[in-house]
Amino acid sequence: MFKSAISRPWVCSRCIRQQLSPRIRRRVAVDPTAPGSHHDDKTLGQIFDSPGFWREYSQSHKSGHHAGLFQNRYLTSPEGFEQFANTSLEKAKRVVAKILAASTTEQYEHVVKDLERLSDLLCRIIDLADFVRATHPDPRINQAATRAYAKMYEYMNVLNTTTGLARQLDIAIKTAGSAWGEEEKLVAGILKRDFAKSAVDLPQADKEKFILLSQEISEVGSEFVESMESAQPFVQFKSSSLYGMDPMLVKEFTRWGQVTLPAIGEAAHAALHTVYDEQVRKQIFSAGRTASRSSLRRLHSLLSKRAELAKLSRFQSYAHMSLEDKMAKTPEAVNGFLQELSKDNRPRVESCLADLLAAKKSYTKNPNSGLEPWDKEFYMSQVLSSVPSRLRNADFLSSYFSLGRVMQGISRLFTRLYGIRFVPRENLPGETWNSDVRTLDIVSETDGHVAVMYCDLFARPGKSPNPAHFTIRCSRRIRDGEIQEAAAVANPLFDSAEQAANDGMAFSRTPNGVMQLPIIALICNFATNPGSKTPSLLSFNEVTTLFHEMGHAIHSILGRTNFQEVSGTRCATDFAELPSIIMEHFASDPSVLALFARHYETDQPLPVEMIAEKLALDKKFESVDTEHQLILSLLDQACHSSRALDPSFNTTELFHSLQRQHGVMPPDPSGTCGEGFFGHLFGYGGSYYSYLFDRVLAERIWQQVFSGGRDGGGLIRGNGERFKGEVLKWGGARDPWKCLAGVLRDERVEDGGKEAMQLVGSWGVERRRRDRLEGRGSKL
User: Fold this and answer.
1) Which one of 223, 495, 539, 748 has the fewest beta carbons within 10 angstroms of its own beta carbon?
2) What is the CATH number of the domain that holds 694?
3) Cβ burial, residue 65 (10 Å; 0-12/13-18/19+)
4) What is the pLDDT of residues 557-586, one digit of tens each?
5) CA-CA distances (angstroms) from residue 437 to 126, 457, 573?
């Protein structure tokens, strides 16, 4: 039942404190039209674009008292992690004792709030420590964070099998549930469902088997992902056979005129796109799509153990178990969605296939040529390279996207849509994990300080290249009893009971009480220009990535609920990507780009037709990728069906059958087993369809709510308020189908179910946005 945010796909971890006690510092809401907002906007650009300005700006608080990591007063040294964990653990044990002792109706009325506080106490450690151990450069702090994480995670696993807590929740729902508000009832349902998934109701022998199976699934799943390998790890050719491939790349793998190329990885990917010799491409493709027997054994073990776990838990299949708390609810609904989406996508794939086949016939001078699986990437590249474009120079667009200007643009967009903006703030001593980290207070026109965001956006040695959004700490209401408890302790680390109740991290006083503010960390790996005055310049893909991650951030910022269990991105997995994919639409909207996209040297605005050209190139074969994702989503459902218990279950036969049945593009040849490289079968078991689902929802909302960007629809406050009011502000505290029905004003989807899933599938992922773009100068 108890879980941290980090276990959810796409969804992130938790974050911190800026509002110090009144006698130290106060921040008030700032009118965005006031002179200070212009100054903040200018400073926002400078702290990211001017290294000299940043050095001067960040010096003002270099000396002074150590504020603690994330301004958490415990975390001023590695030893502080142990103190923080022990203090939180003692609080948690007192909450558990209180829940187990409840016996009156009045006491049962508080059980959900107490369970939610217990969950928050666990997540305060687990999510923060997990982030720190992955990012902090100091090994002593890494080790301390790891120990704190392990201690609280172990306690969480104990609680998940504590039958007394589940029993008390059941009694509370029956005896006191009528007195709860809607959000509290929803949280109670989530907690009850999570307890059931933890096998607390099973007989002791089955419970022990459940725990053992869960551990085995975790181990074999991790091994499957980490040890994926090809049956033929390398392919060898004479260097002359790789004609068409970048000679410098070929040289890296050449010894004595012989090229030894890894079967999987970037080099093999490049070869499939560029090597002229079809037989060479065939060998590379086949090797890269044939997993080793050990990889397939691990996959089959993972799937059979999951099927066994679901059966033990009284579910029809693991997919049924996984989907119970998703929008889809059932595998039948998922498959209905995927089949409708496939129908919508098929004509565009057929058009792409015709283009590729024509390109091959022209290239080979053979009118009877057929397209093979190893031809796809090569002829895609040939078709795209034949299109005249100014975008061949990768630096051409990036000159209009300095990081500082992009951050200004996102802040200006959020001001237009939601009335919030980014306000730069000097880091306090010890507050961040690296001197490159910029701290932004998120300020609302109406609510004042509403969140803190730490931006670690620049590349450095040893840093993960993967962009990510982490919620270090979720929003929730800090209840009066917690503040009174903190006041009774009188801890000298803190200046007030309110501050102590939140470990020193960001909070705000509202008419409804004290709120724990969301603390967010945004991680990217953008290249810098050391020793140069040139700012960090982003490619358009990097701009889109930053907008995507900001979509998660705005969900955390605006989804400030009373219960952390449903705040921000803590919603159904198949709804969680919607805000981030919506932001990708804003990234390419001409009216939004006009807010910030200017040449870093000349200050000239970006020619809009260049973005239209870029998008047309990127989207030329988008439907082909959609088809591939559809087939993988269908494979995910089939692999997690009850068929996985059948000793004769064969994932390779299944994968090839799905390709033949649902694909327009040529299927993989016999003898290959590409499913052995599908690592997401572990991470997204039963829910891989979610990203496609949210792409459809985002496209629909972009067209219906924001008018597809026409007539400045992407900047109209009313449109933003509609999306905020029906979707973002709820986090996970409202049925997502009701959110969808509300924002689209479409009652057909309000109750969800298989029919609603099929309807969503029929909407398609590629609505006719292209018509608008092609009218602005596209050559495709």
Assistant:
1) 748
2) 1.10.1370.10
3) exposed
4) 999 999 999 999 999 999 999 999 999 999
5) 22, 7, 29
**Using an 8 Å Cβ cutoff, are 12 and 470 in contact?**
yes
482 CB neighbour count, 10 Å cutoff: 22
Whole-angstrom distance, CA of residue 630 vs CA of residue 633: 5
| Domain of residue 719, residue span | 316-401+537-780
Query: Scanning the structure block, which residue is given the tokens 């049956």?
Result: 231
* Closest-CA residue to 39 (of 409, 423, 438): 423
Q: In the numeric block, which tokens belong to residue 490?
A: 């009188």
Length of the chain: 780
DSSP state at residue 761: H
Q: Is residue 417 part of a domain?
A: no
How far is 387 from 159, CA to CA, in rounded Å?
60
Q: Are the C-beta atoms of residues 756 and 749 closer than 8 Å to each other? A: yes
- CA gap 244, 247 in Å, rounded: 8
CB environment 422-459: b (16+ within 10 A), e (fewer):
bbbbebbebbbbeebbbbbbbbbbeebbbbbbbbbbbe
Neighbours of 612 (CB within 10 A): 22
Query: Beta strands 507-510 and 448-458: pairing type?
Result: unpaired
Q: Tell me, what's the pLDDT at 32?
A: 41
Residue 607, SS3 per DSSP: coil
- State how far the Cα of 740 lies from the Cα of 699, in Å rounded to an integer: 12
Q: What are phi and psi of 633, to 5 degrees?
A: -65, -40
Question: Which listed residue (116, 377, 431, 549) is catalytic?
Answer: 549
**Both tokens assigned to 701:** 């909302």
Residues 373-419 have pLDDT tens digits of 999 999 999 999 988 766 555 568 999 999 999 999 999 999 999 99
Angle at the Cα of 600 (from 596 to 601), degrees rounded to 5? 140
The CATH number covering residue 125 comes to 1.20.1050.40
Which residues have C-beta within 8 Å of that of residue 247, sequence separation ≥ 6? none
Distance of CA 179 to the CA centre of its chain: 35
Identity of the amino acid at 65: H
Active-site annotation holds for 542:
no
The answer on 619 and 713 residing in a single domain is: yes
Residue that is last in its domain, among 290, 305, 334: 290
Kindly state the tokens that stand for 235. Answer: 């392919």
Provide the 8-state DSSP code for 518. P
Q: Would you call 619 exposed, middle or buried from its count of C-beta atoms within 10 A (0-12, 13-18, 19+)? A: middle
572 and 688, same domain (yes or no):
yes
pLDDT, tens digit (0-9, with 9 covering 90-100), for 349-374: 999 999 999 999 999 999 999 999 99
Distance CA 301, CA 644 (A): 9
d(CA 120, CA 187): 13
What's the CA gap between 755 and 273, in Å, rounded? 40
**169 contacts 115 by C-beta, under 8 angstroms:** yes
- The residues facing 444 across adjacent strands are 420, 448
Instruction: Sort 332 into a burial class: Cβ within 10 Å, 0-12 / 13-18 / 19+.
Output: middle
| Domain shared by 631 and 746, yes or no | yes
| 267 and 323 fall within a common domain | no
Helix axes 403-418, 540-558, angle to 10 degrees: 40
Give the C-alpha separation, 734 to 726, whole Å.
Answer: 9
Q: What contacts 25, CB < 8 A, 6 or more positions away? A: 19
487-514 per-residue burial string, b: 16 or more CB within 10 A, e: under 16: eeeeeebbeebbbbbbbbbbbbeeeeeb
For the cut 70, the answer to whether the pLDDT of residue 513 exceeds it is yes
